[in-house]
Specification:
The protein is α+β, with helices and mostly antiparallel strands. 51% of the residues lie in helices and 17% in strands. It contains ten helices and ten strands. The strands form three sheets. A four-stranded mixed beta sheet has the order 1-4-5-8, with helices on one face. Helix 1 crosses helix 3, helix 7 runs antiparallel to helix 8 and helix 8 packs across helix 9. The radius of gyration is 21 Å and the shape is globular. The relative contact order is 0.11.
Length: 382
């Protein structure tokens, strides 16, 4: 991490220590019971992690996306569920309010979100609309001074915790020139007609809070519109661009966690009278794993630096997510192979990383979507 400032190194070291001493000892049981440890989330809030990239005037730490990525990477190294809770809490929960909210909305909602006292979800994905957000079917119509929302969302992170305050949903609010007008609206938890359905039974990220949502005539004040009417689609794209940097940091942490565990295991595992680490095939596997971590980290660091300096970064964010997501999945597979039968046991972190890492090639834009973004940056219109 030679490109980091002294302050950034201190942050990374602090969160890494927190991850090892507080998060890691709880990870197996949280995964086994599919339970998000809210006391750990509270401690993350007390450390200021949810407020890292926000100004101090709203209760933030005055940092940037580089700082956020360092924290997410350090936690993702030992527990992807807690890392995605932080990532979604910032990128999908608080950031839309900060980027597009009115001053009144910011003053009301951000302090608790940035302190980790509250969480929020971002309701974009639907049964028929994921990367193709233009296929959104959830609707919102104005009835007097209220929005009336009908529809459903799926795979929504942080939507059903004990401290979830609201979800921001994309909805069709009209049509113009044959195209859907998509807006974003804040829907507080507890709103009549808004139902947080039972949590999913997932392959991985078991301790992360994820639910489908249903809206049946849910009414919220017209003032709950987030940003200008009809700008929801454009706003969503910009939020995902930033989120991809954070997801890439998480994936890099997962890839590094797999590498470190595999190196330690290979050094201590005796095979035919000698350490597994002395076998050239194991050495080559570990060397490739190291190269993936290095490449993934360079990619997300570059994207974060571009974003934080106000330069275009969409292509680099897509590259970072593509490279790091594949690095996490490949390293999880190789680490599991190094561990042999033990790698198939959930008590070992590499087994959890193996289950967890696949979603890193899907969530917040699939691998194919990243390739499409990169192809378009090359002038290859389809």
């Amino acid at each position: 991490m030679e490109d980091l400032t002294e302050e950034e190194r201190e942050l990374a070291a602090m969160v890494r220590e927190f991850a090892e001493t507080v998060v890691a000892p709880r990870s197996y049981e949280a995964d086994r019971t599919h339970t998000l440890p809210m006391d750990v989330v509270a401690q993350m809030g007390e450390l200021g992690l949810f407020g890292l990239p926000f100004p101090e005037e709203y209760g933030g730490q005055g940092g940037d996306y580089m700082a956020l990525g360092l924290a997410i990477e350090a936690i993702g190294r030992v527990d992807q569920s807690l890392a995605i809770t932080l990532e979604a809490g910032v990128s999908l929960g608080a950031m839309p309010v900060y980027r597009f909210g009115t001053e009144e909305q910011k003053r009301e909602l951000l302090p608790d979100l940035l302190a980790g006292r509250a969480l929020a979800g971002f309701g974009l994905t639907e049964p028929e609309a994921g990367s193709d957000a233009g296929a959104t079917r959830t609707t919102a119509r104005l009835d007097g001074d209220e929005w009336v929302i009908d529809g459903s969302k799926q795979f929504i992170t942080n939507s059903g915790t004990s401290i979830t305050r609201f979800v921001t949903v994309t909805a069709v609010t009209g049509a113009e020139g044959g195209r859907k007008e998509i807006s974003t609206i804040i829907v507080p938890n507890g709103t009549p007609g808004f139902t947080v359905e039972a949590p999913y039974d997932k392959v991985g990220w078991n301790a992360s809070d994820t639910h489908p949502l249903t809206f049946t005539g849910a009414r919220v004040p017209a003032g709950n519109l987030l940003g200008d009417r009809g700008t929801g689609f454009r706003s969503f794209l910009s939020i995902l661009d930033e989120g991809r940097i954070a997801i890439a940091a998480l994936a890099t942490g997962a890839a590094e966690g797999c590498l470190e565990a595999a190196v330690e295991y290979a050094k201590n595992r005796t095979v035919f009278g000698s350490a597994l680490s002395t076998r050239q095939n194991a050495q080559f596997t570990l060397a490739r794993m190291r190269a993936r971590v290095h490449t993934a980290r360079l990619a997300w660091h570059h994207a974060a630096r571009l974003r934080d300096s106000g330069r275009p970064f969409a292509e680099q964010a897509a590259i970072a997510k593509l490279v790091s997501g594949e690095a996490a999945m490949d390293n999880a597979r190789d680490a599991t192979q190094i561990f042999g039968g033990n790698g198939f046991m959930n008590e070992f972190p590499v087994a959890r990383h193996y289950r967890d890492s696949k979603i890193l090639e899907i969530g917040e834009g699939t691998t194919e979507v990243q390739l499409l973004v990169i192809a378009r940056s090359l002038g290859l219109a389809g």
